[in-house]
Amino acid sequence: MSVKHCIKVDDFSKNEILDLFELAAELKSKYRNKESYQPFKDHSMAMIFAKPSARTRVSFETGFAWMGGHAIYLAPQDIGLGTRESAGDLAQLFSRYNDMIMARVYSHNDMLEFEKHATVPVVNGLTDYNHPCQILTDMFTIWEQKKDNLSDLKIVYVGDGNNIVNSWIRLASVLPFEFTCVCPEGYEPDAETISYANSKNISSINILHDPIQGVKDADVIYTDVWASMGQKEEVNERVKIFSPLQVNNNLIQHAKNDYMFMHCLPAERGREVTDQVIDSQNSIVFEQAENRLHTQNAIMLTLANKV
Fold this sequence. Notes:
There is one protein chain. This protein has 13 helices and 9 strands. The chain is about 45% helix and about 15% strand. Helix 1 packs across helix 6 (about 130-145), helix 2 crosses helix 13 (about 285-305) and helix 6 packs across helix 13. The longest helix has 19 residues, at about 15-30. The protein is of the alpha/beta class. Helix 2 (about 55-65) links the parallel strand 1 (about 45-50) and strand 2. It has 2 domains: about 10-130 and about 290-305, Rossmann fold; about 130-290, 3-Layer(aba) Sandwich (Rossmann fold), CATH 3.40.50.1370. It is globular, with a radius of gyration of 19 Å.
């Protein structure tokens, strides 16, 4: 029997994604009402962290425990991924121990090795190429506000063409909306991913370098740190290059009045975004952050055929 994994957002069809959103909304209500819910009773999940993260660990561990399961945290020093042990060997071993594997790693090739060798569902908690749980969460957060009006959305990402952007572009190959990435020249998202999404003719995808032009009439403005984990030695150079792309009160004047501001967090306030924007009434960053828990729960239940 084939095993379904969540390695990239387009591992799910349009209807499967919309079903995920309905399920996430149901789970969010159950969780907030403190309802007992234990579909993962007597189940365990191995959580492999080659790349650390507070939000990813807490949301997965909390969610799996709430659903009755036991999540096992494995820190970078516990694994030695690629030095002590290969991703393929770990996938085969943990498939014998556990009912699910969540991995947060640097190299996307390691994630592909987990997918190839695991005989239990694998959830991608992030790679340097993409971040499917985050982007499914982000669109779920927008869906809560817009419901059936997703196809009319203009979503504008301002910043580095990183793994977040690659995931948005992959989502645009499944769900119809207008997506614009505003980035400095030389910091564009993956060209093959853009070509792939464009070949599907589902969405309008634009790569621009002028932030004012980019955010014109935006429904959503999204940003991220300018230097991700593993790029911190470039931070001073990146600050000089990216400073014109700061999301501030001057820039947001060009978006729609009821635009939503999003950030996957952690934010470096005063760099990519000002306090006035991230703390404004238009900001939904903490609703977005909470929804990681509920969307990931929906993903795990779906992969385990427990819906």
